[in-house]
Amino acid sequence: MAKLSRRSVLAASAAGGMVTASAVARAAGAVFGDPDQPAEGAVNVTDKRALVDPGPRDDALAANEKIFLDPPATDVGGMPQFWASFNLAPKRIQDGGWARELTQSDFAISETISGVNMRLGTGAIREMHWHQQAEWAVVTYGHCRITILDQLGRAQVADVSAGDLWYFPPGLPHSLQGLGPDGSEFVLAFDNGHSSEFNTLLVTDWLAHTPPDVLARNFGVPVEAFKNIPLTNRWMFQGKVPGPLAEDQKAVASPQGAPPNSFVFRLSSMKPNKRTKGGMVQIADSTNFKAASNIAAALVTVKPGGMREMHWHPNADEWQYYLKGHARMTVFNTGPAAVTADFHPGDVGYVKKSLGHYVENIGETDLVFLEIFRTAKYEEISLSDWLTHTPPAMVAATLNLDPAVIAKFPRDIPDIVPV
Ligand code: MN
Ligand code: MN
Fold first, then answer.
1. Tens digit of pLDDT for each residue in 98-117?
2. Which ligand neighbours the alpha carbon of 332 most closely?
């Protein structure tokens, strides 16, 4: 629609290089689809040679973010970078797998969440550890066994697969192990932008840095029993594929019983909260994934041509992880400021609390991404819901809209359009 706007036609006539009479006339006042003065966007550049970047440049890298090279004319001003990518993060590789991360040191805007992308091969172990932050995770590939102990001595061992979540509250000790046939890959979100997967409390470190006689007294066995403990931490290492799940579950059982709320949630198989012609949304927060007391998530699927509608979140910043397809998101702030970025699989986006945004599927296949929030409950405000639940005369007077047009807007939070 915007592609055939008046400004495009004017721009085509101006293309060729020199300032034309029509371009000068347009500079006198903003027009629909090209609102600001001074006008922004390539369409407003009269000498097109000014659009060429003589370099230096990296064409392959730059081509990944086409919209940065040629932002829409409705974009205006600037805002802190809200695009990052695991694709460009260095890997820490050890025997068994690897991990890479995006903390607030790498991605300054990401104050509430830091992200980790990890791969564990078959049998590989992420060492028994704990940390001060809550850990939320989504499995993106394969199968993994998790273990955790809660503060009342209740243990859980569970196997998770692609599409499943886990949530480990702060301080609760846990471990991860890749299962057959080809291990697992997953993404972790910590509820603090400064958290690092390379800086966790490791059981090997603690034992190695405790006097042997203290170990003997603490565990009630002779000092010699500990003579083979590792003297450096393991963090990640190759192990053997564990036995049947039921055997591990039996081995960890305690008189206190099982944790009342599972630390695992099968997100991708839950009934969608919203389903429209344009796609669907599946939400896991403390109302249905009861253990997840401080991180809420929405798994969003947008069909080709569909769009995650214009909206915002009143209670938390949004950390996004893109799983499949190609997306384009524009974020709106006061100023006004509006900035657009493209997202590909493995990319991460971040939207500050209450800033307006929408996410378009610009590809030929389904777009799938996660919205993650440091909060107990998922919340959003839909622009169309607001405009259809405000007196029509108010909306009509504000936006110069015909009330009959407003009556056609989607009502009741469609989430994905078209409805
Ligand atoms: Mn952990
Ligand atoms: Mn959102």
1. 999 999 999 999 999 999 99
2. 2
Kindly give the distance from the C-alpha atom of residue 256 to the centroid of ligand 1, in angstroms, as a whole number. 24
The answer to whether 328 and 359 are in contact (CB under 8 A) is: yes
CA of 262 to the centre of ligand 1 (A): 17
Task: Provide the residue type at 216 as one letter.
Answer: A
Give the number of whichever ligand sits closest to the CA of residue 313. Answer: 2
Distance 179 CA to ligand 1 centre (A): 18
**191 CA from centroid of ligand 2 (Å):** 17
Nearest of 296, 286, 294 to residue 261 by alpha carbon: 286
pLDDT recorded at residue 269: 95
pLDDT on residue 29? 60
**From 318, 371, 379, 380, the catalytic residue:** 371
Q: Is 26 left (phi over 0), alpha (psi -120 to 50) or beta?
A: alpha
Mean pLDDT of the chain: 93
pTM of the complete model beyond 0.90 = yes
Q: What is the pLDDT of residue 8?
A: 45
Query: Could you list which residues have their CB under 5 Å from ion ligand 2?
Result: 318
For the chain, which domains are there?
A: 6-79 (no CATH), 90-198+235-264 (2.60.120.10), 270-417 (2.60.120.10)
Q: Which residues of the chain have pLDDT under 70?
A: 1-29
Is 371 a residue of the active site?
A: yes
pLDDT at 30: 80
Distance in Å, CA 312 to ligand 2 centroid: 6
